[in-house]
Amino acid sequence: MRSIGTVLVILMLFATGTSQAQKGKHTFKLGTKEFLLDGQPFQIISGEMHPARIPEAYWRHRIQMAKAMGCNTISAYIFWNYHESEEGVFDFTTDNHNLAEFFQIVQEEGMWLILRPGPYVCAEWDLGGIPSYLLRIPDIKLRTLDPRYMEAAERYMTKLSEVIKPFLVTKGGPLLMLQIENEYGSFGNDKNYLQKIKDIWASLGINVPTFTCDGPTTEMLQAGTLPGSAVGLNSGSSSDDFALAGKINPGVPVLSTETYPGWLTHWGEKWAKGDTTALLKEVKFLMDNNKSFNFYVIHGGSNFAYTAGANSGGKGYEPDVTSYDYDAPVNEQGIATPKYYSLRKLIGSYLPKGKKLFPVPIPVPTAELTSIDMQPFTAVWDNLPQPVNSEKPQTFEALGQDHGFILYKTQLTGPKSGKLVVNDIHDYATVFLNGNYIGKLDRRDGINSIDIPVSNTDAPVIEILVEAMGRINYGKNIEDRKGITDNVTLDGTTLLNWKIYQLPMDKKFIWDLRSSGKSVKKSGVFFRGNFFLTSAQGNVGCDTFIDMSNYTKGIVWINGHNLGRYWNIGPQKRLYCPAPWMREGMNEIMVFDLHQTEAKPVSGMKTLE
Length: 609
Description:
This protein folds into 3 domains: 4-305 and 317-348, Glycosidases (TIM Barrel), CATH 3.20.20.80; 369-378 and 513-605, Jelly Rolls (Sandwich), CATH 2.60.120; 384-503, Jelly Rolls (Sandwich), CATH 2.60.120.260. 18% of the residues lie in helices and 26% in strands. 50% of the residues are buried.
């Protein structure tokens, strides 16, 4: 049976057309059990997407996709470290950082908005959105009242509040509600910390209702909820879940903040696939009982560049793949899946007679790119900066480096062979003896040692090229520093006197690369190729997926845009390349591979798999 509240929502969305839904000022408040929009019960039907994971040119398309599936609201995580990559340097205006543009599009499309700004957000994003510069402080405690953390968090919140305030529902904007922290009940139990975050937002003029989100267990809800803030459940899938939340934090509405259409995937796993039948049953329960909910995620997008995070559960270190497809209703490339149409049909069945959902937008086309010849361009060894001399290895963070690679180099003056142990390697490394590759280290597989053979050289040289993969984004171990985080021993003797070469492989580093002009035989090679797009071929304005099946492990750039990581352990062998990052005429592809020295062709495909 359809409730009165559900019908009110539908009428608001469709009676006068969705583009008219936010004309004039509105009020949004927390009732004792329901959300109240203009004083009337309101069911939130939300779709989560993240501006940082979607090319700016596609924001409107993805928002329209959510609207066409039957959503009335967009929920979005905001990633602190995406907007403050360097201490005190903020970007809320360029490209994907332009949150005001995203919020404006949400409003223009007649949708409401929920924000989940952290400071910590998880979200399978590097360090859960917290800037890695804070890890330069050796004893810092993140997600606590540690004054050094809170000073930085408040600075971020202050800057973000200036962007948010014009879009508050209290000012005629679409923003209904704001989340306090994220799944804090899975991490700690300091209600003073949560209340401090809430108080800061209020002091900054963010005068809309707030909510928390936690798993639907007694322990998590007791630790993570706040009086006066709505309770979010990850997920709320039964009457018992909602009843438990209402018992622990009474007098406020409860919603399912993360109703899961799919799930995340780590390197080395099979692609996660959600159970559509179970999902439809859950959504039907939510609709029938007028429960507000948010699809996490309706569209995932991509972990471009070095933004993918990692988990650290019972299996140890588990880095996330570059794709954030998530088996979501709208796939990584923005295409409606069969799951999307099933959900659209179900939600559409609750419309008043004669009303229709917003039409599904036309998808962005994809194109295949025929085999692209690649050539060795240069080697990392021919592009080394001046080293930092250090008695012991230092982490990325201690050196002020966020992402990329670092080369650690030392000359052996004591033991010259035996078992080399790199204590607490974070995260993946190739090891060289006298310039010759001898093996790899891999935190994911617990491999932190390698046998160093006897050398004919009086003073052998060890080189360890370390890749920083995603920082842990969930749980107790989020203070996840990168590089060699402890010491290095050979046959039990600690190795000292290191030369450390910083290789951030950011835009400037890639731009400054110079050809070595010689044969490249030592692994750690940059390959380069060119491809043409022409209107005559019909591939201009089309997305593609760069197939890296011929390569081992590394990074891909198209015209200077970092598509992210690839790794032959799978499951991901193709990297999404959006059309706006390519141009008519000549395009350049650059590949850095940790292992290969032989160039092999790459191609563009129409799908992720």
